[in-house]
């Protein structure tokens, strides 16, 4: 079921239709208590029950929690792969979800975090002789992004690769197998952490990654089974390094010192007393224009 509407503007027709589909799904699948259901808006966070009328109003007034992509509170059964093959299988299962990471992180961020840090082999190799718009790496990323956003199966994606391989000029470098395409993307130098999460995004597991199950025969505990959900975290320091490795981006990052007009008017956060206070308090930090300030803005947040 398409859930892209969850990221659409609340005044859009796409969002309105999506809410209608969701409410119909709730009515048909969710367990009600006195005809009330858990409300997934950013205020109720599936903790407060509402009737369908109030649920409808909340989704438009506050918006739906965008991370709630598996409707477990409303009757959807999580397709959770379980196995007793141990951690080797778990790593294999997580690596198979590369498209999930591209979809969650975003193609542009995925590319910026890696492409400029990997300047050899695939990132410099043209897709075919004379091609100036696509390298082997960039073409693979664009295709994999389409696979992720449209939910293509591995079989259909491989058939597309084979067709494009035949359509492109001879001796092109496009991968012909799904596995080969993943091997192109995985060594891109992307530094990331895979943090296991509960299906409803309310708990992150740093150390105890799996539910421990006791062996009925030996009584021993083991970490069997794949995680219910995986959050992909891109550490911010490598991202900063990549940003400064691009000349134009590096120039923009230092604009507040090198290009800003200082006329005692409040035209930029650097003109604010709070910014100046930080520079005065941490003089060594403020003296280097490459040091970055971060701002956090949220519009409803699943804590």
Automatic annotation (TrEMBL):
Which InterPro entries does the annotation name? Transpos_assoc, Transposase_21
PANTHER family reported in the protein's UniProt record: OS08G0208400 PROTEIN (PTHR10775), TRANSPOSON, EN_SPM-LIKE, TRANSPOSASE-ASSOCIATED DOMAIN PROTEIN-RELATED (PTHR10775:SF180)
Q: Transposase-associated domain: which residues?
A: 3-76
Lineage top rank: taxon = Eukaryota
Which protein is depicted?
Transposase-associated domain-containing protein
């Amino acid at each position: 079921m398409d859930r892209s509407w969850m990221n659409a503007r609340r005044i859009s027709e796409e969002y309105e239709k999506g809410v209608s589909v969701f409410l119909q799904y709730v009515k048909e699948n969710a367990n009600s208590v006195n005809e009330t259901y858990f409300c997934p808006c950013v205020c109720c966070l599936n903790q407060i029950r509402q009737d369908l009328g109030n649920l409808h109003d909340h989704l438009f007034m506050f918006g739906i929690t965008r991370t709630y992509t598996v409707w477990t509170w409303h009757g959807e059964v999580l397709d959770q792969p379980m196995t007793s093959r141990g951690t080797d299988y778990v790593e294999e299962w997580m690596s198979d979800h590369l498209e999930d990471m591209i979809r969650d992180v975003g193609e542009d961020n995925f590319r910026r975090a890696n492409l400029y840090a990997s300047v050899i082999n695939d990132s410099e190799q043209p897709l075919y002789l004379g091609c100036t718009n696509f390298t082997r790496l960039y073409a693979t990323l664009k295709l994999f992004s389409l696979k992720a956003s449209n939910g293509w199966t591995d079989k259909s994606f491989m058939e597309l690769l084979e067709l494009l391989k035949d359509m492109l000029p001879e001796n092109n470098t496009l991968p012909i197998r799904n596995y080969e395409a993943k091997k192109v993307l995985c060594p891109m130098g992307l530094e990331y952490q895979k943090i296991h999460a509960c299906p409803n995004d309310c708990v992150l597991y740093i150390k105890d990654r799996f539910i421990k199950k006791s062996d009925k025969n030996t009584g021993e505990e083991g970490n069997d089974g794949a995680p219910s959900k995986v959050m992909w975290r891109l550490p911010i320091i490598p991202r900063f390094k990549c940003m400064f490795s691009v000349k134009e981006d590096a120039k923009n990052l230092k604009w507040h010192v090198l290009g800003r007009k200082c006329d005692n008017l409040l035209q930029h956060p650097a003109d604010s007393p709070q910014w100046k206070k930080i520079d005065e308090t941490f003089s060594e930090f403020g003296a280097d224009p490459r040091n970055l300030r971060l701002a956090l803005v949220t519009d409803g947040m699943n804590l």
